[in-house]
Write a structure and sequence with these properties.
about 80 residues; mainly alpha; 4 helices; about 0% strand
């Protein structure tokens, strides 16, 4: 087993994790999911809208859709 190794993966939540894990558990999974409720995005102003992609902001109706997916899918990893 390797110690002190950091491996980064990018993709839709756990899509890259399955391949990176190769059946091994993770010690730590870090995520910065969207958390803004969809209806509040238009009122956030140009300082946000001009610099952040919609996908990085939109957390669904209450802002917690990605968080629910993370909590539901993290246990096997």
């Amino acid at each position: 087993s390797k110690t002190g190794v950091v491996v980064l993966g990018q993709g839709d939540l756990f899509a890259p994790v399955a391949e990176l894990a190769a059946g091994r558990p993770f010690d730590l999974i870090v995520s910065n999911p969207p958390y803004i409720p969809t209806e509040k995005i238009p009122g956030m102003g140009r300082h946000v809208a001009d610099h952040e992609p919609h996908l990085a902001l939109d957390g669904g109706e209450d802002g917690l859709n990605p968080h629910r997916r993370i909590l539901a899918d993290a246990i096997p990893y």
